[in-house]
Write a structure and sequence with these properties.
The chain contains 12 helices and 6 strands. Strands 1-6-5-2-4-3 form a 6-stranded mixed beta sheet, sandwiched between helices. Keywords: Kinase, Transferase.
Length: 293
């Protein structure tokens, strides 16, 4: 599985073409075996989280991006279910409100960053500003950026600056102890159609469907181009993108769990070792407790 995960890494400095990725891929696994492996990895993630919390020098930020119905919510639910909720925080970003528009586009995401020792999960993220905003550049006008009061001004140079801002932002976070993992759940247009139909046909899932999803579906090609350009411009050594096949939800969850486990392994996390003076204090306290009647 480790070798398979490498093929989903968007290599820094190389142009991404989504046609080279198979959304239906499931490896040589069967669904039940995949589920069993996921449960095993959850135990490793739980242990890694405890060490991350104890070490308290680094934080982990996991970013999920995808088209509607790609399985972001369920992936977060299943992969992260073994973690201690006290050390984990999830933010689901919607369209910016008036206060958020009064700040730069990274402001609200800075506010949601995980503290040291914690895992932060961003369901959608600052990348919306180079994805949905690139498909709908008129949204950028709401930011009231000097010199950009006309959609015609929002050109390639504008997007290059925005990619630069994102890379610099993530480099700053990394240099200060935040490990960044970026997941793009790549679902096919055909599978999205089926999942939309499932939501419509099942009354219990009707609430998940929004009529606006169909309007965005018509812009599929534009979104795929936006994803290719954003991933190409922002996949770096310290903040890599992983393009995960998402037509099989169980496989996507397993792939994500492996990426997280491998990332934690590379961190070489250790429980803190007490100084001799502190260790002696513990020995003294232990002796006092044992002497109690």
């Amino acid at each position: 599985m480790k070798d398979e995960i490498e093929q989903y890494l968007a290599a820094p400095g190389k142009k991404v073409s989504l046609k080279n990725y198979d959304t239906r891929y499931r490896g040589n696994l069967e669904k039940e075996e995949g589920k069993e492996r996921l449960e095993e990895i959850k135990l490793k993630l739980n242990a890694a989280q405890e060490t991350l919390y104890a070490e308290n020098t680094r934080s982990v930020l996991i970013i999920f991006q995808a088209m509607d119905a790609a399985g972001k919510d369920s992936a977060i639910q299943h992969v992260m279910s073994g973690l201690n909720p006290q050390g984990c925080q999830v933010y689901s970003f919607k369209a910016p409100n008036s206060e958020e528009y009064d700040h730069d586009f990274l402001w609200r995401h800075c506010k949601a960053l995980p503290e040291k020792g914690r895992i932060g999960i961003h369901n959608r993220s600052h990348y919306e500003n180079v994805l949905v905003c690139k498909v709908h550049p008129e949204y950028v006008l709401n930011e009231n950026i000097p010199g950009y009061q006309d959609v015609k001004k929002i050109d390639n140079a504008f997007w290059k600056k925005r990619y630069d801002s994102i890379r610099n932002f993530e480099q700053h976070l990394n240099e200060n102890g935040t490990v960044i993992i970026k997941i793009f759940l790549y679902v096919s247009k055909e599978e999205q159609k089926q999942r939309f139909l499932d939501r419509i046909n099942d009354p219990a899932k009707n609430w998940k469907f929004a009529s606006g999803d169909i309007a965005e579906r018509k812009l599929w090609k534009q979104y795929m181009t936006a994803y290719e350009e954003a991933i190409t411009a922002t996949s770096t050594e310290n903040a890599p993108w992983y393009i995960i096949p998402a037509d099989q939800k169980w496989y996507a969850r397993l792939a994500i769990s492996h990426i997280l486990a491998e990332t934690f392994k590379k961190l070489n996390l250790k429980f803190p070792v007490l100084a001799k003076e502190e260790a002696k204090k513990l020995d003294d306290i232990k002796a006092q407790l044992l002497d109690e009647e």
